[in-house]
Design brief:
By secondary structure, the chain is an alpha/beta fold. It has a single domain, classed as Alpha-Beta Barrel (TIM Barrel). It contains eleven helices and twelve strands. The strands form two sheets. Strands 1, 2, 3, 4, 5, 8, 9, 10, 11 and 12 form a ten-stranded parallel sheet that branches. Helix 2 links the parallel strand 2 and strand 3. Helix 10 packs across helix 11. The model has no long low-confidence stretch (mean pLDDT 95).
Length: 317
C-alpha cells in the first residue's frame, strides 16, 4: 500500500512551510503530496492559506517523483473548465504526476465570505455531476466537445495543447446515492474520506457493483483512504504532538492529553498512537482493499512527524 500526505493548507500554510513540507515528502519517499482546497477555516480565527493551484505548480517544477493534486477541489467555487485546463498543464509540467481531485464543496463560511453560492445538497451534487461530465470530456476527448447543461456549456470546445496523457480524475466522498455512482462513471481514483473500516469495505463492494453496471472492472478505479494522523515515538513526544494538535483544532482546546486522544480517535476518526498502532490500522485498510492512504497533516510547521512516519511506519506497510 502507498502512503501519501495531504497538506491541510488552511491551518497556516505559507511558502516557507510549503517548501519545507514538500521537500521532506519528496525526500522521505512518500508516494504523493496532496492539498486541501479552501480559502479559510470553518470557524475563526483565520490563518494563512496558500492557494492550491499555485502551490501545486511550484511543486511540479520543484520535485521529480511525488504525485500531486487537490484533495479535493470543489465545483462550488472552482470553474471545472479552468480547473481541467490547469490540471492538464500541471500534469505535463510534472511529467505525468498530477491527479485531479474533485468534490461538491461543503464549507459554508468560505462561500459566504467570498460570495460563492454553495446551495443545498441536491444543488451541490447536481453541479458536481455536471462538472465531472465537463471535466472528463475536456480531458479525455481528443476531439472538440459540446455540452449543454444547467451550470456549464461547451460548444466545439477543446483545450490545447493536448496533454501527454489524460489526467487522472479522483472523486472524494462516500455517499451511496449520488457520489458512488459518479465514482463508477467518471473516476480513475476513489478517495474515501475518514470513516470506519467497515464502511470503507461496504462502499468498496458497492463500487464493484456499480462499476460492473457501467461496463468497467473493479481494477479500473484505484481505492484510496484519507485519514487524519498523529504519531509519536515516546511519552515525551506524545505530549508535544498532542499540544500541537490542540493548537491546530480549536475543538481540542483545554483538553487533557487522554481526552485529546479520545476525541481525535472517536470523534474525528483519526489514527493516533505510536508506530505499532498506526501500522496495525493501516494494514487493516490495506487488507480491506485500500491501495493508498493519504494522511492529513495539519501541524504545518512540523516535519519531524513526517520523519517518524517515513522511518517507522512506511517500511511496514
Amino acid at each position: 500500500m502507498e502512503l501519501s500526505i495531504t497538506i491541510e493548507g488552511m491551518y497556516g500554510l505559507t511558502w516557507p512551510r510549503w517548501e519545507a513540507l514538500t521537500q521532506a515528502i519528496e525526500r522521505l519517499g512518500f508516494a504523493g503530496c496532496y492539498r486541501s482546497d479552501h480559502f479559510t477555516l470553518g470557524n475563526p480565527p483565520d490563518a494563512d492559506a496558500l492557494e492550491m493551484i499555485v502551490s501545486l505548480t511550484h511543486l511540479a517544477s520543484h520535485s521529480k517523483r511525488v504525485l500531486m493534486g487537490p484533495l479535493v477541489s470543489p465545483t462550488s467555487f472552482r470553474d471545472p473548465i479552468m480547473l481541467a485546463r490547469q490540471a492538464m498543464a500541471i500534469d505535463d509540467l510534472s511529467g505525468g504526476r498530477m491527479i485531479l481531485g474533485v468534490g461538491a464543496g461543503w464549507m459554508a463560511r468560505e462561500h459566504e465570505m467570498f460570495g460563492y453560492s454553495l446551495g443545498d445538497l441536491k444543488t451541490r451534487m447536481d453541479r458536481l455531476e455536471e462538472g465531472l461530465e465537463v471535466i472528463s470530456r475536456l480531458i479525455r476527448s481528443p476531439e472538440p466537445v459540446s455540452f449543454a447543461g444547467r451550470y456549464y456549456n461547451l460548444r466545439d470546445a477543446q483545450l490545447l495543447p493536448r496533454p501527454a496523457r489524460p489526467t487522472p480524475i479522483m472523486i472524494g466522498g462516500k455517499g451511496p446515492a449520488r457520489t458512488m455512482p459518479m465514482v463508477a462513471r467518471y473516476a480513475d481514483i476513489w478517495s474515501f474520506a475518514a470513516g470506519p473500516l467497515a464502511l470503507f469495505s461496504e462502499r468498496s463492494a458497492l463500487l464493484d457493483d456499480l462499476l460492473a453496471r457501467n461496463g468497467r472492472r473493479p481494477s479500473d478505479v484505484k481505492r484510496t483512504v484519507m485519514l487524519h494522523a498523529q504519531i509519536w515515538r515516546d511519552g515525551r513526544d506524545r505530549a508535544r504532538r498532542l499540544a500541537l494538535a490542540r493548537e491546530a483544532f480549536s475543538a481540542l482546546a483545554g483538553m487533557s492529553d487522554d481526552d485529546t486522544v479520545a476525541h481525535l480517535r472517536d470523534k474525528m476518526g483519526a489514527i493516533v498512537g505510536g508506530p505499532e498502532e498506526l501500522i496495525a490500522r493501516l494494514r487493516a485498510y490495506a487488507d480491506a482493499g485500500a491501495q493508498e492512504v493519504m494522511l492529513q497533516w495539519v501541524t504545518l510547521g512540523d516535519t519531524e512527524g513526517l520523519e517518524t512516519l517515513a522511518q517507522l511506519v512506511m517500511p511496514a506497510v
